[in-house]
Write a structure and sequence with these properties.
homodimer; 3 domains; 373 residues; 6-stranded antiparallel β-barrel; Gyrase A, domain 2; 8 helices; 6-stranded mixed β-sheet
């Protein structure tokens, strides 16, 4: 059963752009933060080829914002992550692994610092709102926490700058990577960030109005005709190539950020107040016992990974594959795997047991993949 | 676009019984607590007719358990709800609306009191684990909180007792409504509760082993041949008939339990420690401004409710439909609606604007529906 039907209800929330992408032939959905997220428009391979060469419009309204504001907002956001935010500035997007007191991953949002006392956490798929509210209540913090009516839209691909300029003007080009600026569309001010869930460049527009959203989509669509625009969505093949881990797939509450290769977002030697820091300091001292690596898996194109696939080193189970896809550009199956310590060295040859019953050679690789590793 | 394809991944977790229900022709899925939940086996009407007359096996592994244990477990569970738990006993299942400090609904689990210091919250679709962990950290409570490997299976329908007796013996008949007992299957002890997400009677079995689960399913399936057993799932038509509100559909974080008709689970005059009680006392004093009611909607069978439908009283918008289904046994469309105060009187005739463009008469009704109301 590879393609079951999704029964939609009010609980699997639509976005203001759902009607747009349905008119353009969305081929599949997943549910993300209790909201619909497109997964393909016909063929993931076609989507991938187009994304790497042109520009796409994505409805990523499911990237819900957890808004934290008030006198204790900065303190709470800092407590929730092990990234040192003391030097962060307004207008910055910050990738912040969130961890609990055991150092286990809760989510990995991008934090938008809107003001010294106001943040949006643009979350992956877990109810960070409840975590933040629980902490705020328990600690007696002076903050308000809510999920505002914001549905991000992404413009991704190498032609994204050129398309965005038509709508927002040349100011778009000045937005640096992982910064955002307020730009106007039809007199409506919108936060526009140079970011997005691909490695092809582009922007995320934080649409905060259900009427402006479709109008902006239509304007981008019309202007996009000159740039071979297409509808798109986070693409499995492209994200594997690019080493983009997905919370819930490749990292879960069973993992800590050191195991997920997020060391550079863990400033464990700095002095700041963080719920999970002490646990991670201890874990770092003892050394992690497993870590995410890339795998190049031999043979015919594999199916996507619906359940973890076991990885063997001879007779021993040494890890599991959590995401896999065949990459046309690499002419190889690429995968993410969580591997045990003695079996994670790049170049090491392991065996992946794929659902088709085959045992395939799997070569450990650094992430992101390169043609050489 | 009524039946989009669901793209499954490791993030939309399978259960130990997914392979069983797929072999039996599951017709659709939704995602619930980041896990697959069947929504039909062919036709919701056939499922409904069968459920009301026979017995069904349901894979409701998505009813995740939030386990709270330790010296402060009882205190934390009490703080999370406005139901007075002081007289609760081990072996009891307790429907507990969870609310935040504003009295807003976080979830509406069934709490299983496993011991004086150990509870399972069998949750609806939101990450209660994160809420509980946030509170516990912030308040410095001595509890441990996790999501154990428990995947409930339900046996529902009027023949449920007779089928369960074949597997578990006559002890099954002694389990009272919303109580659970430990029963054995192949030497493995399982919590079995007389409960479930239908009004047709039956049991939920808290399967805590991924191997025992399919073995138990197969045993029930084989024994069930004598009782016209079929695979099933929570049924939209039956739940509307029965007045079973769904968190995320009919009640959300924008509502409080008084608006949702859950007054009898809110002991606001009792003295116990609860996060949301003060807010709800105040709301009760001022009087709620809207409430859930039933609606009988005229005309041809309506489609299911993917987005809220507006309800008018003349020219005025006075509420919204959140769930709707045509009931063969009532020979009427039945719906849940959140209605404003001056428009919620049973018998009142309002107008529902359905997605087919029609304006239909909608008669306000008490819940649950009866043939007379």
């Amino acid at each position: 059963m590879n393609a079951p039907v999704l029964a939609v209800s009010r609980r699997t929330r639509r976005t203001p752009l759902s009607s747009r992408i349905e008119a353009l032939g969305v081929g599949g959905y997943t549910v993300y933060n209790h909201m619909l997220l497109a997964t393909s428009f016909g063929s993931p391979v076609n989507d991938y080829n187009h994304l790497k060469r042109n520009v796409q419009l994505w409805d990523v309204g499911c990237e819900r914002q957890v808004q934290i504001q008030g006198p204790d907002a900065a303190r709470l956001v800092q407590m929730m992550t092990v990234r040192d935010l003391s030097k962060s500035v307004v207008g910055q997007c910050l990738y912040v692994p969130l961890v609990d007191v055991d150092g286990s991953m809760i989510n990995d949002p991008v934090a938008l610092k809107l003001a010294e006392d106001r943040y949006w956490l643009s979350i992956s798929d877990s109810d960070v709102l409840l975590w933040a509210k629980g902490l705020a209540y328990g600690l007696g913090l002076d903050v308000s926490i809510d999920e505002p009516n914001v549905w991000p839209m992404a413009v991704q691909g190498p032609k994204a700058d050129d398309l965005m300029v038509v709508i927002f003007g040349e100011a778009v080009r000045d937005i640096r990577f992982f910064r955002f600026a307020e730009l106007e569309f039809k007199g409506h001010s919108l936060n526009v960030a140079r970011s997005g869930w691909s490695k092809q460049g582009g922007f995320e527009i934080y649409v905060d109005d259900p009427v402006i959203g479709p109008e902006l989509w239509d304007a981008l669509w019309d202007a996009g005709q000159a740039f071979d625009v297409a509808p798109g969505c986070p693409n499995l093949i492209e994200r594997v190539e690019g080493g983009l881990l997905s919370y819930g797939n490749d990292m879960t509450r069973e993992h800590n950020p050191l195991e997920c290769g997020l060391d550079r977002y863990c400033q464990l030697d700095k002095d700041f107040e963080s719920i999970g820091k002490a646990a991670l300091v201890q874990i770092q001292k003892e050394g992690i016992k497993r870590a995410v690596r890339g795998l190049k898996i031999s043979g015919d194109p594999v199916s996507s990974c619906v359940e973890a696939w076991p990885i063997h080193d001879g007779n021993k189970v040494v890890g599991q594959v959590t995401t896999a896809a065949y990459s046309p550009d690499f002419e190889s199956n690429l995968a993410f795997a969580m591997l045990d310590r003695d079996h994670w060295t790049p170049g090491q040859i392991l065996q992946a047991l794929t659902p088709d019953g085959q045992t395939r050679d799997a070569v450990v690789s650094e992430l992101p993949f390169t043609q050489d590793n």
